[in-house]
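Deviation from plan, reported transparently: phosphoenolpyruvate complex.
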Amino acid sequence: MNRKYRKTIIAGNWKMNMLASEIKPFVEQLKENLPKTKTCEIVLCTPAVMIPAMVKYGKECKIAAGGEDVSKFEKGAYTGEISAAQLADVGAKYCIVGHSERREYHGESDMLVNEKAKALLAKGISPIICVGESLAQREMDLTMEYVAYQVKTALSGIDATQLRRCVIAYEPIWAIGTGKTATAEQAQEVCEGIRAVIRKIYGARPARAVSILYGGSMNAKNAEELLAQPDIDGGLIGGASLKPVDFSVIVKATDQD
Ligand code: PEP
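Because the crystal trials were delayed, the predicted structure below was used instead.
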């Protein structure tokens, strides 16, 4: 982390878990375990129908509510889709785009991720843009090449002012939900590489200001070491974000100098 230049963010991704009625007790338990002074922005990304409840009860812990996906379209006849305006209207401040589960199960391409990020930015929502390599790509030594391509494509047509609202999440696919975490060195190496890609496009200052998160089985035990890395500015957390005590430990792990 480098708090001097950028925001530290601990973001949960609840995926298709939990119910709106479970948010109040979750936040109450989280509050009991959180330190009085916050050293990071706490974000909880939930299914869209749960965002209003997160906005309502999350205030207790200054939680910013987020969505997990968005339509690339502004409005119209797209049954089942949810627009960026609709997310903003119910109070979402962030939204995940390009999660590997969307890429794998819904065939989302890097171009589509770019369109979704732009749709969110147009409505004042910060996209959390997920990138990351498969195990096969890592084993073939293609990690940085592939991740650099994903970052460049996702940011295509996004200017330096809009970049300030973007968050990048490096999530090696082989580490998501598997209990296998990238080592702190592996995660730092790729996050540093992502910042270098952004530096090449936008220059040193904008690159220095972008928050880059690590995601992939981050938990109460490994968070401190991962967050100690200079280019890892927080975490995108799946499984451990469903447990308020574990999630609070990860938030507390941002309190390091
Ligand atoms: C995720 O889904 O973004 C994620 C990182 O999940 P987990 O923490 O469970 O690996």
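The longest helix spans residues 184-202. We consider this an acceptable substitute for the interim report.
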